[in-house]
Amino acid sequence: MIPTTINTQVTQCSNVDALSLRQTSNKSLSYSLPRIYRKVLFWIALLPILAITKSWAGTLPDFSGLVEEEGDAVVKISVITDMTQTASSGVPGFNPEQLPEQFRRFFEQLPQNPEPEQRRGTGFGSGFIISDDGYIITNAHVVDNAAEIRVGLQDRREYQAELIGSDPASDIALLKLDATNLPVVTIGDSDSLRVGEWVLAIGSPFGFEHTATQGIVSALARSLPDDTYVPFIQTDVAVNPGNSGGPLFNTTGEVVGVNSQIYSRSGGYQGLSFSIPINVAISIADQLKEKGYATRGWLGVAIQNVDQALATTFGLAKPTGALLVQVTQGSPADSAGLKSGDIILEFNGKSVNYSSALPPLVGAVRPGSTVDVNILRNGEREVLAVTIEPLDEGQKVSSRSIPDPVDESRLGVEVVELNAKQREEMGRKTGVVVSKLLPDSAAAKAGIRMGDIIISLNREEIDNVRELEELVREAPTNVSIPVLVQRQNAPMFLALTLPSAKG
What we know:
Blueprint: H1 2-59, H2 64-70, E1 74-85, H3 101-108, E2 117-129, E3 135-138, E4 146-152, E5 158-160, E6 162-167, E7 172-176, E8 186-187, E9 198-203, E10 211-224, E11 227-235, E12 247-250, E13 254-263, E14 272-277, H4 278-291, E15 297-298, E16 301-305, H5 308-313, E17 322-327, H6 332-336, E18 343-347, E19 350-351, H7 358-363, E20 370-377, E21 380-387, E22 389-390, E23 407-409, E24 413-417, H8 420-426, E25 432-437, H9 442-446, E26 453-457, E27 460-461, H10 465-474, E28 480-487, E29 490-497
Parallel strand pairs: 8-13
Antiparallel strand pairs: 1-2, 1-4, 2-3, 3-7, 4-5, 6-7, 9-10, 9-12, 10-11, 11-14, 12-13, 13-14, 15-22, 16-17, 17-18, 18-19, 18-20, 20-21, 23-24, 24-25, 25-26, 26-27, 26-28, 28-29
């Protein structure tokens, strides 16, 4: 009996000990070992993040050295303007012409002020020194109507500047200081810029001198509606009033652009800034220095973009190029043999992907230079040599239509021939005017409108109604053919598809 009792006690003690050990072991596993695992797993998970962060830190630019080295060549420009305003009534600055007729009569009875008002205004902007003897580039709009221009350097020295020349078409102006041994910027090559590249602007936004802002190049060769001759650099660099005329630097400290405009609905920065390429600015500045004004190349064509329908019509694999809708008689383009309906694919060795890309390329060519133009004509590529002439800013093409219904054509339109007076007024020797347009007709579907002048059909010029009817009868059906029309002052090609003849 005794051994049995002892064995039971031992067993019981053993059970207790085992239970105690199991509890201790579980407690240790619950707290000690997972803590170690968690630390190990934490560092294992953190290593890729640290590696990525280190990689990012290596690619993010540090502009502090650039600002220290190049910032002293950036200047603040203060302008005093004289503006003469003729007051037409006794109320200063009020123009009764803006009022409706019934209210205008009342203001016309007020005492008139025969003397023009002389007003003084102030403005400011930025610029940068390009030579140690004091030549400075800024925007033309910064110094517009300037009676006095003062330039402030980073070391707080101030100079009165002389305006050497201004070119509103490119928005570039050149100033000159009476000074020597000035700090200068390093000029870069804007043609080497790439989208996504880091850039830095230094200027005086809202008058705060030597403010640096950074971003990336978001687009190149951007065309803006009122700036035909500048292929703008688009960035997301914060640019505000006062930055105009300041430099845009790349990461190596070279000036690649001149900050000029912003896109904004509020008047302040909203994420889109536009800079003039430095290659354009230097070319204009050299001309301003040499002769006080700038000239640019003239080709003598009216162009339009190529959409998918026109690409198919002219046999292009995809929409590209600048479609010539008009060639001015006696122009460089005319002398070189360019014709309406040609599509310029390359100009002076550079691709023309959009029609808006052509004017800056032409404008950049020095008058008298001969360049190659790669075109598509009747589905075949050709290369023509064109000698560029100086642009005459005053040359205009005007047209208007005075319809008078006469005949009807298979296009679904009624047209009228131009008389001698109309041809003189519209500057056209050929064409017929659309006086009536049938709904759902082939012409309407192509985009032809009332008052349009139909100049050519399927690359054949039209002089009268009979010629138009003959061309329509001979034209292929159910395929896209080009029709050239003039609408107000703008000639344009449209893609026309004539249906099969009935009966």
